[in-house]
Amino acid sequence: MSLQSSSPHAPVLLDEVIEALAPTAGDVIVDATFGAGGYSRAILARGAQVIGLDRDPTVQPFADAVAADFPDRFSLVRTPFSGLSQAVAGVPRLDGAVFDIGVSSMQLDQAERGFSFMRDGPLDMRMGDEGLTAADIVNTWDHGPMAHIFKLYGDERQSGRVATAILRRRAERPFSRTLDLAEVVEKALGGRRGAPIHPATRVFQALRIAVNDELGELSAGLAAAEAALSPGGRLAVVTFHSLEDRIVKAFLTERTGNSPAGSRHAPVTIDPRKPSFTLAFKGAREASDAERAINPRARSAKLRAAVRTAAPAWGRMAA
Questions:
Q1: Which of 125, 138, 261, 308 is most exposed by smallest CB count within 10 Å?
Q2: Neighbours of 94 (CB within 10 A)
Q3: Is 54 annotated as a binding residue?
Q4: Which CATH architecture is the domain 14-106+214-308 placed in?
């Protein structure tokens, strides 16, 4: 029987995530990306207790609904991944943690959040309600740093041309709306040119990642989960593009003791630290053809999972 949810944001790889977490009555599980509560509801249905984390204030109505359906077994903490340790500080045992990385379809559908280049809205892109906005970046950053994030976070091959076009236009008037920026990017890249994706896709992705420090938060969240999980506790991480998956893969490769230390100038050595995780399964699992057909967001999704050992945590990975 499928566990697919009817929430406004359909949780990707839900059945596979639940299989990886294997929640049972009495377990305590962290849903580090609560969203609309799809994973949380499926975990709670197995009898476990859930601590949801989310920095997005608009998820509160969904959290209230889950709390009403599962009284005394659910709580929500307003925090990004980096606050996971503090969120579970009073928990005597943590049996699992799940992360669903990136922006949700629910957030994309809210034009006022500024995530979408297909809907007009303020150029915001914050997953929370504090800090730098996308408008701050495109209106104040110099050419070099802006082009750098477009290339690094968006894999935009013409990042310099896009940054130049943005600087030229903002000299006339600042950017404040999503469609305005999307039009400038599209013109800088020569229009659609028959491309399968909109020309602004990579730039908008890069801005979103930079605004929310998504990769830094992912690294911090993985390290926090490693420190908080009890021996036998399970970690499940769903990613949607190569930058995220590369971080998760490198983390698990290192923590399972499969990454030899050394450099091309020195002999390879084995890290003396004991593995803090064992893999739940090799490689990454992907969505079924059936799920991809009904949920386009699932097409690029990858699930990696591991089980915590009794070895001490290694701490955050070096940058």
A1: 261
A2: 21
A3: yes
A4: 3-Layer(aba) Sandwich (3.40)
